[in-house]
Automatic annotation (TrEMBL):
Belongs to the glycosyltransferase 2 family. It is an enzyme of class 2 (transferase). It comes from Helianthus annuus. One of its GO terms (biological process) is protein N-linked glycosylation. It is found in: Endoplasmic reticulum membrane. GO terms for molecular function: dolichyl-phosphate beta-glucosyltransferase activity. Keywords: Endoplasmic reticulum, Glycosyltransferase, Membrane, Signal-anchor, Transferase, Transmembrane, Transmembrane helix. This is dolichyl-phosphate beta-glucosyltransferase. Pathway: Protein modification; protein glycosylation. The keyword Cell cycle does not apply. The keyword Cell membrane does not apply.
Length: 337
């Protein structure tokens, strides 16, 4: 009797696992269809509006030649209060550096992810102040997620180097030099090994991740036990989904060469919190080197990460794992549509 009951329990467990697996696979197929239907912006470039002249400015696409040295992409969702200070610090740094080096040209792309507060107004105030050639705003209309906001900004930027950074200013903007210098060092080695220096930095796929891993011991000592438990569990799931090699996937301070951004952001599918993990997976698929660099980071009040966010992260990583391992999510090395 006990053996029959055990057998029945095992059969039920397998059935439940199968149903869950089929449900997850179905979800992946649906998400893939949604993503394929969401590439309208790849065919028709969005228009940037110049609030000073009210003229429309065509924006480029990631396959176009670079026109700036660096692009900074700032995703913003209900950031009316935190965005001004972060942008002031960013613009002060960029202007100061540009004043010392004529070859240092830049743009800041603020992607308003369907904010319901005054984020749009704040963003356009900066466009008026610094001109549309230096600051541009992408309006998504409705909230689509941080990953999608960054993807849109990356696809329509003009830089040889592209930096994503959070709207709260948690990482000091001048830390971009740490990432930049490491990318330049890797590019130099590649040129030396190939015996050819004709390629520009924008043509060599390299990724640099800002990292808070050096702060982990302090965080473990100050956080509540359940937050540490969730963090460790999340790290384990990331390891299973994307593999080893990156200690901190979630720091919102990452730099890409134009060639790397072209490969990664024309393929990425996850729209919200776990797009960073997918970036790691895709970088490994393409053999793009990932450099992890410690950056200055501080806790800024107003974090949008919640228990629901963590559950969404786990769901997204499940979608990603099933999507790629079953071959439902296709990866293109030259995806233009």
């Amino acid at each position: 009797m006990e053996i029959l009951e055990l057998s029945t329990m095992l059969e039920l467990t397998l059935i439940i696992a199968l149903v869950c697996g089929l449900g997850l696979a179905a979800a992946v197929v649906i998400e893939s269809f949604r993503r394929r239907s969401n590439h309208i912006h790849l065919e028709a470039h969005p228009i940037f509006e110049d609030p000073n002249s009210l003229k429309q400015v065509d924006c480029p696409y990631i396959y176009d030649p670079a026109e700036k040295y660096i692009s900074l992409i700032v995703p913003a969702y209900n950031e009316e209060l935190r965005l001004p200070a972060a942008l002031d610090e960013t613009m002060n740094y960029l202007q100061e550096r540009a004043g010392k080096d004529n070859s240092f040209t830049y743009e800041v792309i603020i992607v308003d992810d369907g904010s319901k507060d005054g984020t749009k107004r704040v963003a356009f105030d900066f466009v008026r102040k610094y001109k549309v050639d230096n600051v541009r705003v992408v309006l998504l209309g409705k909230n689509q997620g941080k990953g999608e906001a960054i993807r849109k900004g990356m696809l329509h930027s003009r830089g040889k180097l592209l930096l994503m950074l959070d709207a709260d200013g948690a990482t000091k903007v001048d830390d971009l030099e740490k990432l930049e210098n490491q990318i330049l060092a890797v590019a130099k080695k590649k040129h030396q090994s190939a015996g050819d220096s004709s390629e520009g930095i924008q043509d060599i796929p390299i990724v640099a991740f800002g990292s808070r891993a050096h702060l982990e011991k302090k965080a473990l000592a100050t956080r509540k036990w359940y937050r540490n438990f969730l963090m460790k569990g999340f790290h384990l799931v990331v390891l299973l989904a994307a593999g080893p090699g990156v200690r901190d996937t979630q720091c919102g301070f990452k730099m890409f060469t134009r060639a790397a951004a072209r490969k990664l952001f024309t393929n990425i599918r996850l729209k919200r919190w776990c797009f960073d993990v997918e970036l790691v997976y895709l970088s490994k698929y393409f053999g793009i080197p990932i450099i992890e660099i410690s950056v200055t980071w501080s806790e800024i009040p107003g974090s949008k990460v919640s228990l629901l966010s963590i559950l969404n992260m786990l769901w997204e990583m499940s979608l990603m794992s099933v999507g790629y391992r079953l071959g439902i999510w296709k990866i293109s090395s030259d995806r233009q549509s």
